[in-house]
Design goal:
The chain is mainly α. It is built from four helices and no strands.
Length: about 80
């Protein structure tokens, strides 16, 4: 270890987040209270709606996948018809 890192007290060390997941960490640790509450409320509302309409997560993911595949198919055919 270098002399500089040995002489500085541990309280003055600033740790930088290099992986870019500070928002997720802040939400999980409730550092951003408004964002954490918003995430909790949205997740609760989605859970209640799924329960009320008797859907499960797999059904919604399947429908979303079908929409994506159908949209990609139609978009490809429209581009081919327009010669682009």
């Amino acid at each position: 270890m270098s002399k500089e890192s040995q002489s500085s007290p541990p309280g003055d060390v600033v740790v930088r987040d290099t992986d870019g997941c500070t928002i997720v960490r802040d939400v999980v640790l409730w550092r951003r209270k408004k964002l954490s509450i918003s995430v909790l409320l949205v997740a609760t509302a989605i859970g209640v709606l799924l329960d009320v309409y008797e859907f499960n997560f797999l059904t919604l993911i399947s429908w979303a996948g079908m929409v994506v595949v159908t949209s990609a198919f139609l978009w490809g055919n429209i581009l081919r018809l327009l010669n682009k």
